[in-house]
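User: Second chain of the day. Same drill as before.
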Amino acid sequence: MDYIHLKDMEFYGYHGVLAAETELGQRFRITMHIAVDLQYAGETDELDNTVSYAEVFSIVKDIVEGKPYKLIEAVAEKLASAVRNAYPAVIKGIQVEVIKPDPPIPGHYREVSVEITRGEFI
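Assistant: Same format as last time:
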């Protein structure tokens, strides 16, 4: 299995359960690993035979900066579905991590995150 990685894409959104999250918003980092067969794309050198990083970034941006969700689990699910649906013939599986680096909860930690895997992923 081959992979395309988009690491630490950063956006500003309004997802969360707490009032501060939905009123003030916060940064979100998204890391995505996309399982694909890249051999044909490598042999043909044609974008149509792979996944466009620019299009994936745009899809992720629209979701993270768009409609607010209470749970980052829902954000992760929307991201995985939207990217897979954009390339149904190419993407074999996807792993999505949604990271809140600064959630408004007391305590000491680097970040909180969820990670989901959909489809084939080795």
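The radius of gyration is 15 Å.

User: Great, on to the next one.
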